[in-house]
Amino acid sequence: MKTFFGLLLAIILMINPILAGAEFEGYEVVSTNDKENITLYAKKINGLFRDFKINFKGGIYSRPFWIGETNPTYAPQIIYKDINKDQNKELIIILTKGYGTGVLWEDVYVFNTSNNRLDINEVILDNPLVIIHKNVKTKLTAEKAEVIVGNTKCTIDITSLEIKPDNLFNDIGFGSIIDYDVRDNQLIVCVAGQISPASFVGSIVIVYEYRDKMYQAKSIEFSPCK
Q: Among residues 151, 144, 153, which one has the least CA distance to residue 172?
């Protein structure tokens, strides 16, 4: 029975098109990587992109539950690089699911590939907020903000920011800005540390590595605002 449902899920999530690159009725192209023959399609529903399809080198893969912003400034990103050092490139798709003043929420999805085909199962990625909760300690007063990562403590004088006492948070908050990127073939996320509705003191920078069949934190450090 388990095998049957697995096969059924595979059929639902992957449909080979009659013609490679065929357009889909009701969908629009939201991002492309022409060099690698990768195109991302979605429907625009209630002001958001939903019900995504990935054309990966002629194979069509459905992701009906993804959500992304339609603002071209925050268009979905398609990245095709070897980030786990297995000599095969991985497909990384970054979607913006929310933005605004002092807000940027991104989701990232990573797929293994081989022989120009996509593994339909997304690779698990440790949630950056959980990583921060386990590894970062903070303290906030009217004069200073402290961030401790491992044995490293960073103290920031916040008096020059002239934050009204009513606007100062009880502690440094993380989660209003979650920004993914791939640098030097490494998956990275920057999570901003916020001390008031309009003030930030820096970011926690997490570099991921592929370990035990998932992406986990390789390094964590705090980068203060300059």
A: 144
